[in-house]
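I hope you will forgive my troubling you with a question about protein structure. The record follows directly beneath this note:
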Amino acid sequence: MTGYIVGALVPIVFTLLLRSSKKLKKRGVPVDVGGEPGYTIRNSRFPSPVETSWEGISTLAELFEQACKQHADKPLLGTRKLILRDVEVTEDGRSFEKLHLGDYEWLTYGKTFETVCHFASGLVQLGHKREERVAIFADTREEWFIALQACFRLNVTVVTIYASLGEEALCHSLNETEVTTVICGNKELKKLVNISGQLDTVTRVICMDDEFPSSANGRWTISSFADVKSVGRASPVDADLPLSADVAVIMYTSGSTGLPKGVMMTHGNVLATVSAVMTIVPGLGSKDVYLAYLPLAHILELAAENLIPAVGGIIGYGTPLTLTDTSNKIKRGTKGDATVLSPTVMAAVPAILDRVRDGVRKKVDAKGGLAKKLFDLAYSRRLSAIDGSWFGAWGLEKFLWDFLVFKKVRAVLGGRIRFLLSGGAPLSADTQRFINICLGAPIGQGYGLTETCAGATFSEVDDTSVGRVGSPLPCSFVKLVDWPEGGYLISDSPMPRGEIVVGGPSVTLGYFKNEEKTKEVYKVDERGMRWFYTGDVGQFHADGCLEIIDRKKDIVKLQHGEYVSLGKVEAALSISPYVDNIMLHADPFHSYCVALVVASQHAVEDWASKQGVAFTDFAELCEKEDTIKEVLSSLIQIGKKARLEKFEIPAKIKLLSTPWTPESGLVTAALKIKREAIRKAFSEDLAKLYT
């Protein structure tokens, strides 16, 4: 009997010891640095910042050429064949485009490199000079990547512009950088035509699609992507490779406030981030398949698509609207991108992961009965295991739940995901746990900015905590400096707190033609280290991991002197099942907050159905007093659970039935809310909430 007891205790003791060792693991350690006094942490495995992980490689152009020579015959870039473009009309007369897509068609590393060289030569033959800038203005696709690498081979600086950018911001970006060549898609070319009279320097346009609007002819020299390749193939030009300090990209942020700013990134900046991430993602290599669908004009995606070829991986292109079998643009009977590609690694922004979570929950709730009970039981068992319960689902039980329940969930993203990278905004603890359990893959939550080439912190694969963004990347030092006005000091107990400042080789040169703003947030210390002041507020845990706790610009003082952190409250309340998006509004002349809430149609309609609330359409339902009361009650409960102060929880809300999209100008391409734009658009509604 004793033997059985000992045998049963061994795995429990082993598990507890293992978890204990993880809790004590130092992921980041203090370091002595120059600059403004503060509390600075570096990655525990790297005493000095990493600049490159490849011997003799100092630029993105060199890195790509080396990869293509090493893996010449292996597939690199894949695009799905368009079989049919259809339009479906709903009963209420609305029309939606639906796509019937086939399998992926592949370009090998060798063929891709050849195409890059031909396109680069074609650019020169068209008359583009090295000192002139090229803008890439398109959705993420194969041609985007090829154009980027072609420009790198010519040491031509690329201006990246979100495809969803509005006309004013687009005009500003092109004129400020004095772009002479724009590479775009058919859809984006139409936008260019609309502002053609306002563009000062554009002389040539290259359309990624073979067909483009005839109305564009005569305004610029217009060529198709294929034609440029053909010209270059016939008249090859030698490469003019860049140096590490040369500017590779001027990346225009989508701008949550005002006009976008152009961040100048050198080859060395981006290479440092790429090199650092390679050391963090476990076992990243030639067997990995990456699903590319985020905007390449975002540093997270641009860094990822430069990393995957460097390790011999495969990139398959998709879109957010064709990602899964049930995505909006997928024609019934057609498989989504993830199902066809079966990726092993993906990058995502929290808004995308929130949609995956909500989609799974919607399906589970719709099934109901035994299926829902089984899912809830499996989820609770796995959650207790991750949270450290003695009775969690480990070993054989974990395998059983994975086989019976979660295998179907994993099929949503192709069934082979082994690692997810989340960045661009804070990921809620609820979504992080849900995705981690249901997909059975770790989520590496990163923190960084365009100004730091996404390089700052990244959570390690064995860190199962939530609400934190990991320890410093090997390319970065992360410092906290006092912000007395906000009440955050590095001397605070139990953790040092303060404004987050990032230093290291991934910190960019500054803002293009904006020296005043550059001097405000970039500093060079006495040792030559460049630092960027983020405006975010964080605290360091004992193991050296960072937690984002506030934002300097999001602080508003209410009428009676209480401070409200808008972003912190929004992050806490966004986990309500009724919330698709939310913006908290605080007015210094009032003692309470209000909120605009974009309602989750599924959740609200499901509640109405169960309560017997009659409605003709969703917009009407969102106007009903009972609906508003139910959603507000949910926010109050969640706010109390999150230990928000009473004055932080909105006293009144306005329910909105129409989602905020990049096209509407109310969220950025990375799906962050554009606070000022929303305030302006809903000024009357906000005013009514205070009456």
User: Anything to note?
Assistant: The CA atoms of residues 667 and 673 lie 4 Å apart.
